[in-house]
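Our preliminary data section would be incomplete without showing what the modeling component actually yields. Below, a chain of 286 amino acids is followed by its predicted structure, encoded as tokens that our downstream tools consume directly.
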Amino acid sequence: MSAGAAWLLGGALLAGGVGALNHFIRRGLAAPRIRETERPDGLPWQEASVPTASGKNLHGWFIPAGQGRPALVIMHGWGGNAGMMLPLAAPLHAAGYSLLFVDARCHGLSDGDSFASLPRFAEDIEAALDWLAKQQEVDPSALGVIGHSVGAGAALLAASRQSTIRAVISLAAFAHPAAMMRRWLASKNIPFWPLGAYILAYVQWVIGHRFDAIAPCNTIAQLRCPVLIVHGLEDDMVPVEEARQIFAARTSDAVELLLVPGSHDDYGDMAEQVGLLSAFLDRAFR
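Predicted structure:
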């Protein structure tokens, strides 16, 4: 922990005890909001407003590919936005897929909420799927999800409880939120005991879910739809071993593992690997 953070934490504890500590935790873990400046220009896109949980609305771009085509929800990662996923737009659209790029709550141009979390990302994915299914151009029986990082974990969680999802592509997912948070604690020089353990317990209380229940290494075992787990070999934020851990926990032969060159945020240079993605999707929807 930096000297400034230590002073801030110490001051918070002196000023208000546990309540101040909880405020410090929530502020420290809040997702940064980066509003996109890009748009899917050159494609037949239209602005979308997607109603989601808590009476909120998600900002999105809908890019139809023709009558009755399969459709995909594209979800970014923590602190990201729909614009960061746009390298996938043109090649997937050319492959015949209608696309809905959305900002999760508290991200991009979407409404804010009391907090963001992996389960809330999953709620937003489910809301986007509901919106897609109502579009005249879309085949409601051919819906899939592509998610990055937290968005990938949320895609797996959504698919574990939504049988209408026909395919999932997970880009750079972590295996378990607790392991991810312990790496974050270590990066901030925050000792796990007692402070780190309290932070993990408090976060689970706030989001209303145990980490074990939402961990990709556990939700993958509940999926029966085709899943492609993609991970960059140079990912220094989420080690590639975590992709192997998720893959090892599968209970279906329809789960595939694809390791590619790349880091975490370029999710394996997927714009260059999109032929492999579309080939997987073709198999899944066929």
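The chain has one domain: 31-176+215-285. The longest strand covers residues 138-148. Preliminary results of this kind motivate Aim 1 of the renewal.
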